[in-house]
From TrEMBL:
UniProt keyword annotations, A-Z: Signal
Residues in BURP domain copies: 62-279
Any one Pfam family match given in the protein's UniProt record, by short name: BURP
PROSITE patterns registered for this protein in UniProt: BURP
Organism: Hibiscus syriacus
Name of this protein: BURP domain-containing protein
PANTHER family the record matches: BURP DOMAIN PROTEIN USPL1-LIKE
Signal is among the record's keywords: yes
InterPro entries associated with the record: BURP (IPR044816), BURP_dom (IPR004873)
Signal peptide: 1-24
Length: 279
């Protein structure tokens, strides 16, 4: 479980000079437009940031299924992010020509001018390495760089003629404590055979690591929570019904004081992650 939450946290601030000669090679991100500035010398430059991806700092709340009962109160932690725009997939036409490979790192520096050795460059390299490693046994994994590639991957698992649906937790407001007690207001199981969890990876545009566990029984819920501060969160809650193949050292089992197979293990999803299910 632990390795799904990539150990990387940073604010990527890229300074990009848009020289007309190279601008066609440069990926334009929605966030770039927000902060584009004209400089005194007449050259326009863009300062765009990649949202802080505080995956290392975020500790998902692990629990078991029976704690989710309407009226009960549980402590849950959700990370704060301002908005989802850095986590929205770009269309394929914007990303398909950009290599996604650690072999192409020198070329990538043309698209994303980051200083070699900087935190940002390291994060890009780590994400590429993570995406290139062998998938864990029994899992069909993929790093997806566009909405169309997500659709293709999901249809390959769910069925080529199926419509897919993406579910996410709602955002918490900036005044909501990261960890607080929430009262469970409602819990609805999303009836689905196949569940594909996807986790946001640190990268200059939206990249998701999706992993489908073959022959694993998962249950997926939308749980409405009301925080002590009054904030409501509609949260994605996933239960892995069979923890017997898990390592005794997995963070979730240690946290819950469980042995592999002793119980299902469930966790809430932060808003920047997503789950794909059949429509
Ligand atoms: C949640 O409530 C319990 C019981 O009142 C309390 O002991 C605990 O400190 C609270 N947790 C948080 C994060 O506020």
């Amino acid at each position: 479980m632990g390795n799904e939450f990539v150990t990387c946290s940073f604010l990527l601030l890229l300074f990009l000079t848009l020289d007309p000669g190279v601008s066609s090679n440069v990926l334009r991100l929605p966030s770039m437009d927000l902060v584009e500035q004209k400089e005194d010398d007449g050259h326009s430059s863009s300062h765009f940031h990649m949202e802080t991806v505080s995956l290392a700092n975020y500790d998902p709340t692990f629990t078991v299924m029976k704690v989710i009962q309407v009226g009960k109160t549980i402590p849950v932690s959700f990370p704060y992010i301002k908005d989802l725009s850095p986590y929205q997939f770009l269309p394929r036409e914007k990303t398909h020509h950009i290599p996604f490979s650690s072999k192409a790192i020198p070329e990538l520096h043309r698209y994303f001018p980051v200083f070699p050795g900087s935190k940002q460059a390291t994060a890009i390299e780590q994400t590429l390495k993570f995406c290139e490693r062998d998938p864990p046994a029994g899992e069909a994994t993929a790093c997806l760089t566009s909405f169309e590639s997500l659709t293709d991957y999901a249809r390959g698992i769910i069925g080529s003629d199926s419509d897919i649906r993406i579910v996410r937790s709602s955002l918490i407001s900036s005044s909501t404590p990261t960890l607080q007690n929430y009262t469970i207001m409602e819990s609805k199981e999303i009836l689905t055979g196949k569940v594909i969890p996807c986790h946001a990876e640190p990268y200059p545009y939206a990249v998701y690591y999706c992993h489908f566990q073959v022959n694993t029984d998962n249950k997926l819920f939308m749980v409405s929570l009301r925080g002590e501060n009054g904030d409501w969160v509609d949260a994605v809650f996933l239960c892995h019904m069979d923890s017997s193949p898990w390592s005794v050292e997995s963070k979730a089992l240690i946290r819950l004081g469980l042995k592999p197979g002793e119980s299902e293990v469930c966790h809430f999803f932060p808003a920047y992650d997503l789950v794909v299910v059949p429509q």
